[in-house]
Amino acid sequence: xxxxxxxxxxxxxxxxxxxxxxxxxxxxxxxxxxxxxxxxxxxxxxxxxxxxxxxxxxxxxxxxxxxxxxxxxxxxxxxxxxxxxxxxxxxxxxxxxxxxxxxxxxxxxxxxxxxxxxxxxxxxxxxxxxxxxxxxxxxxxxxxxxxxxxxxxxxxxxxxxxxxxxxxxxxxxxxxxxxxxxxxxxxxxxxxxxxxxxxxxxxxxxxxxxx
Length: 211
Description:
Layout: E1 3-7, H1 12-23, E2 27-32, E3 46-50, E4 66-69, H2 79-99, E5 104-108, H3 124-138, E6 144-149, E7 151-153, E8 161-162, E9 173-175, H4 176-187, E10 195-201, H5 206-209
Parallel strand pairs: 1-2, 1-4, 2-3, 4-5, 5-6, 6-10, 7-9
Antiparallel strand pairs: 8-10
């Protein structure tokens, strides 16, 4: 039986992805710092595991064959937390996944992670962290998909997607719920492994966007 570990399951994208997988009948392990943050999700297919991403959290991988890394330090933290969560915790997650013989690892990254030098001074530490974590995953030997969504919006899902970068910055956006839908889709399509995708709201279905 397939079991998916979601790292950062109490975050906005992580929680939506958790619920969507459960709605599909999937078995999910949600890794959180505080179990109470998932009290609003009721399912006998959900196992909630507590862990600190700044410490050893390898125990969360037991019995899991798929992983989504959806954790992040958050926009209100400093560069220190960015390095500890977006880089170091992500790299540790990759190493734990490899040791656990995980068959698929989906990383939530960011547009701009391909070339952090092009980012603003404020964004560079975050983009460097994402870039290095992505590279660690690519070089790990673990089957991966890296998703680099555009600027995230707290709106209802649009249901339309594109992987081609829009011509104007104001269109380089995507709702968090659409990202969650994309993560669920990527998990169910093994032919999309060992690839990196940027993702924005657009006019295509997920099938068309990832074709």
